[in-house]
Write a structure and sequence with these properties.
Elements: E1 5-8, H1 14-25, E2 28-34, E3 41-46, E4 49-55, H2 63-75, H3 81-90, H4 115-126, E5 134-137, E6 149-150, E7 152-155, E8 160-163, H5 174-189, E9 193-195, E10 198-200, H6 204-210, H7 216-225
Parallel strand pairs: 2-4, 5-8
Antiparallel strand pairs: 1-6, 3-4, 7-8, 9-10
């Protein structure tokens, strides 16, 4: 388990989804996130490579929907009631979607933690100030909807780091949030590696650098207690 993966829920990223689909299908998966509302799921297979195109709204789908997508990608048949229901419920949000005019609402200052400050500290300490990504708290999610989410994600499309707002609490140690910011900044700095046709999001180099965080062991212990 990654140090930023816990029993919490947050938006999926293209890379975490691709990794999950590869695990479920046993094949390399090239995942493209689109704004195409005409063809929301498209699957093509060539040899051991699956080319999957998903509409952007599936980045916010629940785990049950994602599992059904994985089953569909693997078998290319069978009923998909959860997928159809998710599309129906989210169709209104597709209106006026235009990638060229798409705006990302950035919110860095939380009630207890300032992401802009933490980003600047981490950037100077570990990256010599070279990371140019944006950072923001993600959208708030009702507690009843929280099942299993990640604490942070990085979008290559918008070059934005998203941090789960559930962490903006007084009892969350500052070093924990700082590590999650560091982890996502590593994704900015280290491209996903390929090995035997498979994408490695957390490559050996990534894991090695992840352990360079000054409070890494404390974060791991905190995660086990949380």
């Amino acid at each position: 388990m990654s140090a930023v993966q816990m029993n919490l829920l947050f938006s999926h990223s293209r890379y975490t989804l691709a990794s999950y689909f590869e695990k479920e299908t046993g094949k390399a998966v090239s995942l493209t996130v689109t704004d195409n509302s005409t063809s929301m799921i498209s699957v093509k297979t060539k040899g051991d490579l699956i080319s999957l195109r998903l509409h952007r709204m599936f980045l916010n789908a629940g785990n049950e929907v994602i599992r059904e997508i994985a089953a569909f990608v693997k078998r290319r048949k069978g009923s998909t009631p959860l997928i159809r229901d998710f599309i129906r419920k989210n169709r209104n949000s597709l209106e006026n979607t235009n990638r060229s005019s798409r705006k990302v609402a950035i919110r860095t200052r939380g009630k207890y933690h300032d992401l802009r400050e933490l980003f600047s500290l981490v950037n100077n300490q570990y990256f010599s100030g070279k990371i140019k990504a944006s950072i923001s708290w993600g959208k708030k999610i009702p507690r009843w909807a929280v099942k299993k989410r990640t604490l942070g994600s990085y979008s290559h499309q918008t070059n934005t780091i998203w941090i789960n707002p559930v962490l903006d609490r007084k009892n969350i140690p500052r070093y924990v949030i700082k590590f999650i910011v560091y982890h996502e900044m590593l994704h900015c700095d280290i491209p996903a590696a390929g090995k035997k046709g498979r994408r490695l999001v957390h490559s050996p180099e990534f894991k090695k650098r992840e352990r360079l965080f000054e409070h890494y062991e404390r974060v791991v212990l905190w995660e086990k207690r949380a």
